[in-house]
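Batch job 17 of 40 flagged for manual review because the log was empty.
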Amino acid sequence: MNSTDLKRAKKDVRRRVLEIRDASTPQERAACADAVAARCVDLTEVAAAKVVMAFWAFGSELPTMPIIEALRAAGVEVALPRIAERDLEVRVWRPGDPMTQTPFGALEPVEGRIVPPMDVDVVLTPAVAFDRTGRRVGYGGGFYDRFFPKTNAARIGVAMALQVLDQDLPAGAFDLRVHAIVTEDEVIRTGAPS
């Protein structure tokens, strides 16, 4: 598949899944978030982690505050990504720390100690869609795909079950898979290489 076909295929997946995800209610998303948070903190990778990079949900994404709160309650240091020069910069975040809104609607920390990528133990990874082998279709910015090679962290996708497709998603050589996907219904171990 050439790059034009790959972009077109990802755009089609993005459109189809966002249409379904956008139709979910805030109450449905909140219930899913609570179940995902409980499953996340039970993961062996998370239980052993000192630093987990989470993300701030926006739009119809699975709300991440329940996950962040569960991580903090478990004594894990939570960091959030900040876009800096087309790359992700990881900063420690605590409730009440100042945030700023990105052009696409997510919030990111204004300050906070910068965490070197190699010090991140787990990256909670957003996506529009996942497949059961760990491939993901994000929003098209490539931020996570550029960040993953800089860290040895476990890559854990978090999403609602409706975002996990049984079909193989389109992917290029630069698209790295997640190691596991956590939904309200299950934890999917993908067998992706580290």
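Reviewer: the log was empty due to a logging misconfiguration, but the result itself is present. Residues 3-189 form a domain with the Rossmann fold fold (CATH 3.40.50.10420). Unflagging and moving on to job 18.
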